[in-house]
Specification:
By secondary structure, this protein is mainly beta. It contains no helices and twelve strands. 0% of the residues lie in helices and 39% in strands. It has a five-stranded mixed sheet, with no helix packed on it. The protein has a four-stranded mixed sheet with strand order 1-2-3-4, with no helix packed on it. A hairpin with a 4-residue loop joins strand 11 and strand 12. The termini are far apart.
Length: 152
C-alpha cells in the first residue's frame, strides 16, 4: 500500500526554533526529539521530559525579586533582597517554592511574609548557605529556613 500524501511538521534544530508560530502549528526539533506547538503568540512544549532532573532558576542577586509558584531557585545574595510572593487563586492544589540561598556577607533579606514554620522568624544573621522553603497553607505563604552544615 502506498500513501499518496505525506504529512510533515515544520522541523529543524532546537537552536532554530522560532519564538512564535501560528496557533496549532506543530514544530519538531530534530536534534532533541522534542515537539512544540504554536500558540499564535509563542510556542509551547508538548509532553513530559521527566528525565529525573529539576529546572533550577537563578534569581537576581539583590533587589526586589518576584518568586514563581512551584519553583526551585538559587540565589547568590550580593545586596539586600525583598521576595515578592505570587498570588494564589486555585487553593485546591499544592503550592511550594524552594530557594537555595548563598550569602557571603550578611545582608537584609525580606522573606515577603510574616508567617513562619513553628511561628518563628528564620534567623538569617550569618553568612552561609540556607534552604528556604515556602508553602501555601490555603490562606498565607508560610516560610522556613535551614542553615546548611549546622545542627538543627
Amino acid at each position: 500500500m502506498t500513501m499518496a500524501n505525506k504529512l510533515q511538521f515544520k522541523r529543524g534544530l532546537k537552536s532554530n526554533l522560532p519564538s512564535s508560530a501560528d496557533s496549532g502549528m506543530p514544530l519538531w526539533c530534530t536534534d532533541t526529539k522534542e515537539l512544540y506547538i504554536g500558540t499564535g503568540s509563542g510556542v509551547q512544549k508538548i509532553g513530559d521530559d521527566n528525565d529525573g532532573t529539576t529546572s533550577i532558576k537563578t534569581l537576581s542577586s539583590s533587589g526586589t525579586i518576584a518568586l514563581t509558584d512551584n519553583s526551585v531557585n538559587q540565589i547568590n545574595v550580593t545586596g539586600n533582597v525583598t521576595f515578592n510572593l505570587p498570588s494564589i487563586t486555585n487553593k485546591t492544589i499544592f503550592h511550594e517554592i524552594f530557594i537555595l540561598l548563598k550569602m557571603n556577607t550578611v545582608k537584609t533579606i525580606n522573606l515577603g511574609t510574616t508567617y513562619f514554620f513553628n511561628a518563628k522568624t528564620p534567623n538569617l544573621s550569618e553568612a552561609g548557605l540556607y534552604s528556604l522553603i515556602y508553602e501555601y497553607d490555603g490562606t498565607n505563604w508560610v516560610c522556613g529556613a535551614i542553615k546548611k552544615g549546622t545542627a538543627s
